Amino acid sequence: MKNKKLILSISCLLLISLFVTGCKQEIEVKDGSKVAVSVDGGKITATDYYNEIKQTNISVLIDMIDHKLFDKKYPRTDEEDERVEKIVKQLKEAYTDEATLNAALNQFYGVSTEEELEDMIRLEYKRELAIKDYIAKNIKDSEIEKYYKENIFGEVESKHILIIPSVSDDADDDEKEEAESQAKKTAEEIIKKLEKGEDFSKLAKKYSQDTATASKGGDLGYFELDEMVEEFSSAVKELDTNEYTKKPVKTSYGYHIILKTGQKAKPSLKDVEDDIREKITLQKLDSEATLYYQTLIDIRKDNNIKFNDTVIEKKYNALMKQLLEAAEEQAQTNN
C-alpha cells in the first residue's frame, strides 16, 4: 500500500469519471488519453496510470470498499482510539528514531506515514467488529442450545489445598522431576488423611501453599467455572456437593485437592444467550483458520459488491484465494 494517500485520491477521481463500455469488460477512463505526467522522452496518460493501479494495487481498492461498508456502521469509539494509541506507542518505543520507524512501517505494514498506519489500524478494528457480528448473527439455535447444555453451569463454591513443587529457578530436569513427584506424594498423603475423616479446612490451614486462601481453610468462595484454569474447572464440574477429588489435580500452579461445597442454579438460556454467541464466535475464529477472510468475502457479497472491470474482479478473486490459502498453510504449520 505504498503511496496510499496519492493512490486513494486519484482512485476516487477515477471512480467518479469512469464509465462502463459493455457488460463484464474493462472500464475506460474518460479522457484517458490526456497526459497525466510528462517527462523527457515520454508521457504517462490517465489510462496508463489507471491500468497500473488496478494491476498492482488491488488492496487499496479493497480498503476503499471496506471503508464504505464499515465506517458508518461502526462509528469511531474510545476503544478504537485506545487500540490505535496502544499500537502506535508500542511501535515508537520499539523504533525510537523517525527514519527507523518509517522503514519499519513500510516493511511490516506497507504504509509510509503514521497517519496511514492509524487509518489501517482503524479499518482493521472495524473489520474485526464486522466479522464478529456477522458470525454471531449466523450461529444456529442448535449450536447455542448445545453450548448451553454442555458448558453453562451455575456458580460453584469450593475449597482447595494447593501443594507447589519446591524447585529453584536453576534446577535441572532431574531436580524438577523429583520436586514434582514429591509434591504429588504430599497431596496424595493429604487425601489419605481426608479419607480417614480429618477436617478439610484444618488440613488446608496446615498444608496449603495458596497464601490467599490457606488461612481461610482453602475457601475460594463462589466462582464461574471459566474463571479457573481448565484442569481445575473440569475437576470441579465432575464433583457432587461436599465431595472432594480422590486424586491430586495437576495445574500450572501445582497439585490441588478440591472440595466442592456448593453450586448455584444454572442461569436461563435467555440470560446468557448473548454471552454464548460471543464465546462460540471466538471459538470459531480460533479453530477455523480461513474464517476471518471468508467472512469478509461473505460480507462483501451480501452487500452486493459488483465489479464492472474484469481485470479488477480477477485481481480481487486471486488475492482472496491467496489469503485463504496462506491462512490455511499457516494453521497447518502451527499445528
Q: Strands, helices and their partners?
A:
Layout: H1 4-17, E1 18-19, E2 28-29, E3 35-39, E4 42-45, H2 46-56, H3 58-70, H4 78-94, H5 98-109, H6 114-137, H7 141-151, E5 156-163, H8 173-195, H9 200-207, E6 219-223, H10 230-237, E7 249-251, E8 254-263, H11 269-287, H12 291-302, H13 310-334
Antiparallel strand pairs: 1-2, 3-4, 5-6, 5-8, 7-8
Helix pairs in contact: 3-6, 4-6, 6-11, 6-12, 7-11
User: What value does the average pLDDT take?
Assistant: 88
> What is the CA-CA span between the terminal residues?
31 Å
Alpha-beta classification = alpha+beta
The tally of helices reads: 13
Largest sheet: 4 strands, antiparallel
- As a percent range, the share of helical residues equals 55-70%
Strand order of the largest sheet: 6-5-8-7
Helix and strand pattern: HEEEEHHHHHHEHHEHEEHHH
DSSP, total strands: 8
Strand content: 5-15%
Rounded radius of gyration (Å): 30 Å
Which regions are unreliable across 5 or more consecutive residues at pLDDT < 50?
Answer: 1-24
Envelope shape = elongated
Describe the structure.
With 335 residues, this protein is of the alpha+beta class. The chain is 59% helix and 12% strand. A hairpin with a 2-residue loop joins strand 7 and strand 8 (254-263). Helix 4 (78-94) crosses helix 6 (114-137). It starts with a helix and ends with a helix.
